[in-house]
């Protein structure tokens, strides 16, 4: 039986969250950048944008972007590091069926052929794997919330965030977004209304969790997550995911 590191075993779920979160946050900023520009220009006689309406519009826009993504296939490379050492590298081909079902096909996997330890060592390793899987599941649930999946959670963030601008680059900053003491920032190019970087600093069971998401756009405007990195220094864990080679089906 082949052995797979527990974080590597959960990499597909984590990848889905990160891609979804980045896509959602990307569409947030597509609408938000125009809001920021209107606020800064302070044009006389213009009514300020209705944030509640904007939140609903952005929620609809992210659904449209997600639907358009079903017309593409792409490659995903997932790497898991423990204590600075690469434990797993997996490359998958991602596509959707005509019915909208997500499909993954393994292109390469460094864990293939690895043997499970037996005896007492095997039992210890099995318990460790189970513990890490439970922890990874909790981490996934926590990070999912930073995708601001509902119009209500998005509205709360927009209503409390502060804005910093340098040239045409706009940085949206939020604190206590999901839990006390967390921070989230989103950097957007207000010139072309494209999301550049999302960063989240949060914690799970007392361990700091750092997330960075780099977003890009295809020529036809589709917003996608190019690279995501999740670091948990207290557990010496690092997960990085890259999406590339997008092809229209």
Polypeptide structure, described:
The chain is of the alpha+beta class and 249 residues long. It has one domain (6-244). Helices cover 37% and strands 38% of the residues. It contains five helices and ten strands; from the N terminus they run αααβββααβββββββ. The protein has helices spanning 6-9, 11-41, 51-69, 119-145, 151-160, and strands at 72-82, 85-96, 102-109, 162-166, 169-175, 183-189, 194-204, 207-217, 223-232, 237-248. The chain has a ten-stranded antiparallel beta sheet with strand order 3-2-1-10-9-8-7-6-5-4, with helices on one face. β2 (85-96) and β3 form a beta hairpin. α2 packs across α3 (51-69) and α3 packs across α5. The two termini are 35 Å apart.
Q: Which class do the helix and strand fractions yield? A: alpha+beta
Shape: globular
Strand tally? 10
Helix content: 25-40%
Written as H for each helix and E for each strand, in order along the chain, the element string is HHHEEEHHEEEEEEE
Radius of gyration: 20 Å
Q: Mean pLDDT across all residues, rounded?
A: 77
The number of helices is: 5
Count of domain modules: 1
Strand order of the largest sheet: 3-2-1-10-9-8-7-6-5-4
Distance between the termini: 35 Å
Give the percentage of residues in beta strands. 35-45%
Element layout with pairings:
Elements: H1 6-9, H2 11-41, H3 51-69, E1 72-82, E2 85-96, E3 102-109, H4 119-145, H5 151-160, E4 162-166, E5 169-175, E6 183-189, E7 194-204, E8 207-217, E9 223-232, E10 237-248
Antiparallel strand pairs: 1-2, 1-10, 2-3, 4-5, 5-6, 6-7, 7-8, 8-9, 9-10
Helix pairs in contact: 2-3, 3-5
């Amino acid at each position: 039986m082949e052995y797979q590191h527990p974080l590597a075993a959960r990499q597909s779920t984590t990848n889905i969250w990160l891609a979804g979160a980045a896509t959602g946050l990307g569409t947030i900023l597509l609408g938000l950048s125009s809001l920021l520009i209107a606020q800064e220009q302070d044009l006389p006689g213009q009514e300020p944008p209705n944030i509640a309406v904007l939140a609903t519009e952005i929620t609809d826009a992210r659904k449209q972007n997600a639907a358009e993504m079903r017309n593409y296939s792409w490659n995903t490379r997932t790497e898991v590091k423990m204590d600075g050492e690469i434990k797993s590298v997996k490359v998958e081909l991602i596509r959707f069926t005509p019915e909208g079902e997500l499909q993954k096909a393994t292109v390469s996997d460094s864990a293939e052929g690895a043997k499970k330890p037996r005896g007492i060592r095997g039992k210890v390793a099995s318990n460790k794997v189970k513990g890490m899987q439970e922890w990874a599941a909790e981490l996934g649930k926590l990070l999912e919330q930073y995708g601001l999946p509902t119009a209500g959670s998005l509205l709360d963030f927009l209503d409390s965030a502060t804005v910093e601008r340098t040239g045409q680059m706009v940085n949206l900053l939020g604190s206590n977004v999901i839990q006390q003491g967390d921070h989230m920032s989103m950097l957007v190019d207000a010139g072309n209304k494209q999301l550049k970087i999302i960063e989240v600093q949060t914690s799970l069971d007392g361990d700091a969790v750092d997330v960075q998401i780099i977003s890009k756009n295809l020529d036809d405007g589709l917003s996608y997550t190019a690279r995501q990195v999740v670091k948990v220094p207290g557990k010496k864990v690092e997960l990085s995911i890259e999406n590339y080679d997008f092809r229209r089906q």
